[in-house]
Amino acid sequence: MNSANEGSGTRARCWLPPIVRVALLASLAPGPASAQATARPEPAPPPAQSADVASVDAILGAVYEAISGPAGEARDWDRFRSLFMRGARLMPTFGPSEQGYGRGVWSPDEYIERAGARLERDGFFEVEIHRVEERFGPIVHAFSTYESRRREDDPEPFARGINSFQLFWDGSRWWVVSILWYGETEAHPIPRRYVPV
Questions:
Q1: Model-level pTM?
Q2: C-beta separation of 59 from 52 below 8 A
Q3: Rounded Cα gap, residues 146 and 62, in angstroms
Q4: 96: number of Cβ within 10 Å
Q5: Sign of the alpha-carbon dihedral angle for 40, 175, 1, 119
Q6: pLDDT band at 39 (very low <50, low <70, confident <90, very high)
Q7: Strand order in the sheet with 159-169
């Protein structure tokens, strides 16, 4: 989420996806504060709307809808929380740099704390443009290619990348177990098999 030249359409070598842009370095800093944040007990998620968790399409769509909206509009963060199983993690990845690649690890509430205000302030619309899905029993892995815009009608996205979703069916509803994502860079363009034909 850092230092993208949106006007020219070029991306910096270590550009980070928009969802990561708030206090990433602070969230990765060692010390008592981050240890306490990781150790605090996580509350049970609020009840979900049944339509949001009835299918893989529905829950992925609900995640994208929950974080998207125009500048100045509050998001329904309880809806967002309701999609994630207790203990779920959101993990932005970034790099390469001299140190290689890095990863953040956030709970849904930590994601809201670090990214929510900026999404609401600046405007943010993220949509899935392609998906590769694997399923076995109650588990699904989805490679969900996304495009991000500041306004819904922007002609071009300012960012693209892949969200790697892990989903679980508990017999009555779908849950997000984790999302690991990486934004497209000049060094790592999205492979053709993960974009629409």
A1: 0.80
A2: yes
A3: 14
A4: 13
A5: negative
A6: low
A7: 100-103, 84-97, 174-183, 159-169, 139-149, 125-136
The token pair at 158 is 């300012």
Alpha helix ranges (H) inside 84-134: 108-111, 117-122
Q: How far is CA 76 from the centre of its chain?
A: 15
136 HSE (CA, 13 A, CB side)? 2
Q: Determine how many CB atoms are found less than 10 A away from the CB of residue 109.
A: 17
Q: For 13-36, write each residue's pLDDT tens digit.
A: 444 444 444 334 444 444 444 444
Give me the domains of the chain, ranges plus CATH numbers. 18-26+55-194 (3.10.450.50)
Q: At residue 96, does pLDDT exceed 90?
A: no
Residue type, 77: W
CA torsion 190-169-87-111 (nearest 10°) is 40
Answer for the pair 179, 161: CB distance below 8 angstroms, yes or no: no
